[in-house]
Write a structure and sequence with these properties.
This protein has about 450 residues and is an alpha/beta fold. The chain has helices spanning about 10-25, 50-65, 80-85, 90, 110-120, 175, 185-195, 225-235, 255-265, 280-285, 290-305, 325-335, 365-385, and strands at about 5-10, 30-35, 40-45, 75-80, 100, 130-135, 155-160, 160, 180, 200-205, 240-245, 270, 310-315, 340-345, 395-400, 410-415, 420, 430-440, 445-450. Among the domains are: about 5-135, Rossmann fold, CATH 3.40.50.12160; about 150-270, Transcription Regulator spoIIAA; about 395-450, Beta Barrel (OB fold (Dihydrolipoamide Acetyltransferase, E2P)), CATH 2.40.50.
């Protein structure tokens, strides 16, 4: 039995992959620890979307190398950076034992056991033993089944597909996660059903471009895309109270999906819709396949179809060739739309992506200034959107103790705003009415009236 420390960098898909690895290790009799100093196995699930995430993971692994001076320790990189860098990571981190790519998470437990046993029985003169597996595996999207259910979580992520075919010029994901592959609807529904039986009340369907689910594998039925068919099937799971998905692409937002919000009551009023830029010139250079005008028109149609829809987004500033005028267009569009929240990123060159070798790379000070300026616009709108709830009654799914104050409970609105309130632990996992008394912009505070 080994004590295993797992740290996750990056997106919700990485979190979901780490869950799978953790549960498979628990099933083998190992123990998951949150204390890195006592770990016998160190696994870092990595992200390659930005250079900073890679540097953090490399720095962390370097620091944790000191543990092996006290006892045998297995060190492993998993996920996107492992996939993109492969065996070269062994040169950067001399004590590394495992490098496991994005299509092999289901094999991590086997590899950990193999390396762990060799470490325990190693002789001083033994040749170093390492495992590198970054090969593609047919059907790997169907191996994402295990969930870490300790603590009876109220919400869970469910991966419905792997990979991406969009090839945005700034993005390394198609190279690290491969082409689109989707899981069959019955498999996803069965996974959701098992989660609900274990106390989960809300699921978030995950995909790199989630609303393009199944477009190559499954047919349209009654003019409904495979993704809308999946939403309908998951919606029928008895005991499920809320249904979310992330992240869609604007080009995949068709009428059938817009209509689904009107007849699927469990489907919550929140859409994370990446914008990336408000300049058509930059959008074209990014290979985003829509214009600022089309994006704005889609937002207006969404809000017209579903009043009260919360819309969040991603924006990149400082993409190669972005002028002050280009940035001004982005700023103006973000201010015109008035998002509930937005994640603003400074462009980061990624190896082997077209944007990394484009001319007119923007300087770091300019990126920083634009990032800071746009965050000011985003924060102002977030406060305005959240402030509108003060004095209103909103439905909250109580998730558990607040992360910032364990003596209070927290949950989320249907629009994905965090709410903090006083209450008994018996409310965890239940829908409650919250009378909102004040807001800080990103968090609502109030009192519970009654359980729904």
């Amino acid at each position: 039995m080994a004590k295993v420390y797992i740290k996750t960098y990056g997106c919700q898909m990485n979190e979901r992959d780490s869950e799978q690895v953790a549960q498979m290790l628990l099933d083998r009799g190992h123990v998951i620890t949150t204390h890195e100093a006592e770990a016998d196995v160190v696994l870092l699930n990595t992200c390659s979307v930005r250079d900073l995430a890679e540097q953090k993971a490399l720095g962390k692994m370097g620091m944790l190398g000191a543990l092996s001076r006290q006892r045998p320790v297995v060190y492993g990189f998993l996920g996107c950076m492992a996939q993109s860098r492969g065996a070269s990571l062994l040169k950067e981190v001399p004590h590394l034992d495992l490098v496991v790519g994005t299509q092999k998470f289901h094999r991590v437990a086997d590899y950990v056991d193999e390396v762990w046993q060799r470490k325990l029985h190693a002789r001083f003169d033994d040749v170093r033993f390492t495992i590198i597996d970054v090969e593609e595996e047919r059907g790997s999207q169907n191996t994402i089944r295990d969930h870490l259910t300790a603590g009876r979580p109220v919400s869970a992520f469910v991966s419905i597909m792997q990979g991406c075919n969009m090839h945005c010029t700034f993005c390394i994901v198609p190279y690290t996660r491969g082409a689109e592959r989707s899981r069959p609807i019955p498999e996803v529904v069965e996974e959701v059903r098992r989660l609900v039986e274990q106390g989960v009340r809300e699921v978030t369907l995950l995909g790199q471009i989630v609303n393009l689910y199944g477009r190559h594998e499954f047919p349209k039925l009654e003019d409904k895309s495979p993704f809308v068919q999946l939403l309908e099937a998951v919606h029928e799971v008895e005991g499920l109270q809320r249904l979310r998905f992330t992240s869609p692409h604007p080009i995949g937002f068709r009428q059938d999906l817009l209509a689904a919000f009107g007849y699927l009551p469990k489907l919550v009023e929140h859409i994370h819709l990446p914008l990336q830029s408000g300049s058509n010139r930059i959008l074209k250079a990014m290979h985003r396949t829509y214009t600022a005008e089309k994006y704005l028109s889609l937002v207006e149609e969404i809000r017209s179809t579903t009043p009260g829809m919360a819309i969040t987004t991603d924006v990149i500033v400082g993409f190669p060739g972005e002028t002050d005028e280009d940035y001004g267009r982005t700023r103006a569009l973000v201010d015109q739309i008035g998002f509930d929240n937005a994640f603003v990123f400074k462009y980061s060159p990624r190896k082997d992506t077209p944007a990394a070798v484009m001319a007119a790379q923007v300087s770091e000070p300019v990126k920083e200034a634009r990032n800071h300026d746009l965050l000011g616009v985003v924060n102002a709108w977030a406060k305005r959107r959240a402030g509108a709830f003060v004095g209103q009654k909103v439905e909250i799914l109580c998730e558990g103790p607040s992360k910032t104050n364990p003596h209070r409970l927290s949950g989320r609105t249907r629009g994905n705003k965090i709410a903090v309130f006083e209450g008994n632990e018996r409310l965890i996992g239940r829908l409650v009415d919250l009378e909102v008394e004040h807001s800080t912009g990103y968090t609502l505070y109030g009192r519970v009236e009654a359980a729904i």
